Amino acid sequence: MSPEVFVDILRDALFLVIVLVSAVIVPSLLIGLVVAVFQAATSINEQTLSFLPRLIVTLLALIIGGHWLVQQLMDYAIALIASIPSVVS
User: How far apart are the C-alpha atoms of 49 and 62, rounded to whole Å?
Assistant: First the structure.
C-alpha cells in the first residue's frame, strides 16, 4: 500500500468523523448559545437551565439523525471493504 492511498483513506475517515460529530454537536451549540443569551438577559445563573436543554437537543439530534448517521458509517465501511483488493495489490 502506497502512502498516498493511506492518506486518502485517513482523510476520508476524518472527514466522515467531522461530519457525523457536527451533526450532533451543532444543534446543541446553538441551543447553548440561545440559553446563554437568555440567562444573561434575565440574570438567571442556574446550571441545570443550561445543561438540560442541550442534553435534550443532543438526544433529539441523535434520534432524528440516527438513521442518516448509521447509513453514512455503513456506506464508508462498504466502500472501504470494497477497495481492499485494489489497495492490497
Answer: 21
DSSP string of 22-73, one letter each residue: HHHHHHHHHHHHHHHHHHHHHT---HHHHHHHHHHHHHHHHHHHHHHHHHHH
Identify which of 89, 87, 72, 68 has the alpha carbon closest to the alpha carbon of residue 8: 87
5 vs 87: CA distance, rounded Å: 7
CA atoms within 13 A on the CB side of 70: 6
Give residue limits of the domains in the chain.
Answer: 3-84
* 31-75 residue pLDDT tens: 999 998 998 898 888 877 888 999 999 999 999 999 999 999 999
pTM here is 0.80
Place of cell 466522515: 16
